[in-house]
Write a structure and sequence with these properties.
Layout lengths: L14 H10 L3 E5 L7 E7 L3 E7 L5 E7 L14 E5 L1 H9 L29 E6 L6 E4 L11
Antiparallel strand pairs: 1-2, 1-6, 2-3, 3-4, 4-5, 6-7
Helix pairs in contact: 1-2
Amino acid sequence: MSPPTPHLGSSGPGLEELLEELRRRKWVLHLFGGREAPEIYAAVHRWPTCADVIILRDEHRASAYRVPTFPGTDVFSPRVVTWQYHATPVWALRAVLTLAEPGTPGAPLQALRPQPECHIPPELRRDVTIRPTSSTTETEEEGDDGGGPPACA
């Protein structure tokens, strides 16, 4: 998959500005399917009790969701979510970046069954590159079992 291309929605920030906001907020980027030509881009922002996730599949399809985290939670294959949104990358990024922080008024609390788009297939998770967006250091993990970073405590 090619990196998502810049696209301005009907109004508001475009894709580049929204991706820059992810970096500013220190989301962790996961490139699935190889560092040179990843098939899926995903980013995770961890809170003490949950994680916000965005999955960019191509320039037309993206999913964002909030997953409660417990020991052993796989944020890329959630069993339950408290919020989910499926649209273009621009709209999904706008939605997740405006989601109320956990524990504040308006934060989603209901338990929902995640749509299939909230999952990254296991075959793509064998080769993943993880890049903290807050620095230029990158870590490549090959042969990852797909469990992702440790769950929030």
